[in-house]
TrEMBL record:
An annotated Gene Ontology molecular function: kinase activity
Classification via Pfam families: BcrAD_BadFG
Residue intervals of the ATPase BadF/BadG/BcrA/BcrD type domain: 2-286
Lineage: Bacteria, Bacillati, Actinomycetota, Actinomycetes, Pseudonocardiales
The keyword Ion transport is assigned to this record: no
Protein's UniProt keywords contain Transport: no
Protein name: N-acetylglucosamine kinase
Region: Disordered, residue numbers: 18-39
Species per Swiss-Prot/TrEMBL record: Amycolatopsis taiwanensis
The organism's place on the tree of life at top rank: Bacteria
Amino acid sequence: MIGVDAGGTSTRALAVARDGTVVGRGSSGGANPNSHPPEEAVAHIEEAIRAALGDRDPHDVDGCTVGMAGTSKLSDPAVAALFDAAWKRLGLDRVLVLSDAEVAFASATASPDGTVLVAGTGSIAGRIRDHRVVATMGGYGWLLGDEGSAFWLGREAVRWTLDELSAGTTLGALSRSVLHEAGLDDTERSEVWRRLITVANGEPPIRLARFAPLVSAAPDAGPIIERAAELLVETAMAVREPAENTPIVLVGSVLAGPVGTLVRKRLSDLPVHTSSDGVLGAAWLAALAAYGVNANRPKQGI
């Protein structure tokens, strides 16, 4: 089996034996075709799979599941053709492309039903039925949504800094750290806000996510953290059926920090699990497709 977790910042692949033992690993850069050029996304997924396969014959692979952020992009026939060409180059006959939300849910629980909340570079919640997403909320990408995500946190951090600069108030810890990350200082207050705008607009929009860790570390960023948690819980509950008692799976870098702490507090009356490694869920779903309900869940090997 091959399992792949292709996110906005990195791609990881596992080769897994039928008994569930991990026998190969590979990694590469981000592969969300909505936030990366599709050709680049394809190249990163292909690189990760080749590394995981090593010297193994791809024709011996019983199945491959790719969990990918930005699967909506495959609705473009030209983009879908790029991915199909990659599967042919790799020699893989059975490739199932699922959302990153589906593989994340499968990595944390064997339950076929529940809710998954993903908050990494982007954000999305999904209602899971029989291991597949049947309804979603969010996941619209940086331009149209991704509330509470690392992109959202980074954007809010820059806006917070611009507001303090524009108001001429004393800069707090978050604003100082944002300026440092942007390679700026506040010695010329009349100009630095313009320079920060220029820096933020001079890079791909998704790069705003690099400011997200600064929010988690800043003692004065509480309002941003509170709002992020509120938005993420709203997103999850909007897709969850009333009175449902199935698991909620949390996944993503944002939910591993102070935002996640608040989200868990708000969901404390529900069964909440944490996905530590979505690629394991991808490998298990590949095994389920090939071997049925008795397929072994992946276990750590090499």
